[in-house]
């Protein structure tokens, strides 16, 4: 078993380390110089050209990967994109027709609720595109088109490399749609793709900076709860960070949109409560950056222990960070591919310090094939 883990203490550590490769493998071969190439395409170009609305359905971390991509897909395609938990979507009466594209995201391709959401959509003649990590699994088999994530097998129950690969694949779905709809031209798609292609290196650079995060994880082993705040694409990252901590460390954790602070979460702040804040780039998103800065001041004034994930060189936030984790500079929409990494490592380290098996958290299954 030690050999299977490639020298890492757990599969999760191995899979976190494999993330640059997972991203590179997922991107490889999907841009032909003019458009994004899917892996299986049983839809004509015309089918995509008439799409006027997108639903994205998924569960767990896959759902968060879709939330991250929603910001980019709306920006690039100018289509309304609705994110739906598969377990809600399948029992609702969503407004769908043949011009609706439903994107179903699933690492395993076998999650019961996501599969039923696909069937629910197809019965209403919507087209379905699967983003999946498992060749030949049920969800891609029942979909009209497929984009595979090539993260390789993921053994750790809590998703890590498959999650980053899902984000990259979702972004390619967005670029593919933008090409079909004509909202982006081949040269623009090529430019966005080139930015994506730099991300495996950015993730590798991020991984090299994680020692202070491990140290922090050991310090927080006895915390009672941790809150996570973010805005824009940092919001789903906050949700994912909280989910990882719940899954692995069995610690109360919640992710919030920082703009909601005054609508409830601020009441939870007490002396010493760790709050992880995912900062937007001061350069690329100055307005959002200033909003988060004032959120941090508010929670720090009330005694929170602020843990700030920020772009390198973000001098404005430094005075308000009890712990500052600085990450490489990347385009704003791609930031989640790197800001997620310290949150995975933080959760793993807290769990380890508490003596838990991070590959097999209690009560959880890798793939939820029954409701
Ligand atoms: C389980 C796993 C999660 C995963 C979710 C969805 O809860 O523990 O890591 O995100 O299922 O799985 P899927 O295979 O559909 O992506």
From TrEMBL:
EC number: 2.6.1.16
One MF term in the entry's GO annotations: carbohydrate derivative binding
Reactions catalysed according to its record: D-fructose 6-phosphate + L-glutamine = D-glucosamine 6-phosphate + L-glutamate
Location(s), subcellular: Cytoplasm
GO cellular component: cytosol
GO biological process: amino sugar biosynthetic process; carbohydrate metabolic process; fructose 6-phosphate metabolic process; protein N-linked glycosylation; UDP-N-acetylglucosamine metabolic process
Principal EC category: transferase
Residues in SIS domain copies: 44-183, 216-361
Residues forming the catalytic site: 366 (for fru-6p isomerization activity)
Keyword annotations: Aminotransferase, Cytoplasm, Glutamine amidotransferase, Repeat, Transferase
Known partners and oligomeric status: Homodimer.
Function field: Catalyzes the first step in hexosamine metabolism, converting fructose-6P into glucosamine-6P using glutamine as a nitrogen source.
Protein's recorded name: Glutamine--fructose-6-phosphate aminotransferase [isomerizing]
């Amino acid at each position: 078993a030690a050999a299977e883990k490639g020298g890492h203490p757990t599969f999760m550590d191995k899979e976190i380390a494999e993330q640059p490769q997972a991203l590179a493998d997922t991107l490889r071969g999907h841009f032909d110089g003019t458009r994004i190439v899917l892996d299986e395409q049983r839809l004509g170009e015309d089918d995509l050209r008439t799409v006027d609305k997108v639903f994205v359905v998924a569960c767990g971390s896959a759902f968060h990967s879709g939330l991250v991509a929603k910001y980019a897909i709306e920006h690039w395609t100018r289509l309304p994109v609705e994110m739906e938990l598969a377990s809600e979507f399948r029992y609702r009466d969503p407004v769908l027709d043949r011009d609706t594209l439903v994107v179903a995201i699933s690492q395993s391709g076998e999650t019961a609720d996501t599969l039923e959401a696909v069937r629910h959509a197809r019965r209403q003649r919507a087209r379905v595109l699967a983003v999946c990590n498992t060749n030949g699994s049920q969800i891609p088999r029942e979909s009209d088109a497929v984009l595979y994530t090539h993260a390789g097998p993921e053994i750790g129950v809590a998703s890590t490399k498959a999650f980053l690969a899902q984000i990259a694949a979702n972004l390619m779905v967005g670029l593919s749609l933008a090409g079909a709809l004509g909202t982006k031209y081949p040269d623009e798609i090529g430019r966005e793709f080139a930015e994506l292609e730099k991300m495996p290196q950015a993730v590798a650079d991020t991984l090299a900076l994680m020692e202070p995060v491990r140290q922090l994880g050991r310090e927080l082993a006895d915390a009672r709860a941790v809150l996570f705040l973010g805005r824009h694409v940092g919001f789903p990252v906050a949700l994912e960070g909280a989910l990882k901590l719940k899954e692995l460390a069995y610690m109360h954790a919640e992710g919030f949109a920082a703009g909601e602070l005054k609508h409830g979460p601020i009441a939870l702040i007490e002396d010493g409560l760790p709050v992880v804040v995912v900062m937007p780039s001061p350069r690329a998103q100055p307005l959002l950056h200033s909003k988060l800065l004032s959120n941090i001041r508010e929670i720090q004034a009330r005694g929170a222990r602020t843990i700030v994930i920020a772009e390198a060189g973000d001098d404005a936030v430094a005075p308000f960070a009890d712990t500052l984790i600085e990450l490489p500079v990347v385009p704003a929409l791609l930031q989640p591919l790197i800001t997620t990494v310290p949150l995975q490592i933080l959760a793993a380290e807290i769990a380890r310090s508490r003596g838990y098996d991070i590959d097999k958290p209690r009560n959880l299954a890798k793939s939820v094939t029954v409701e």
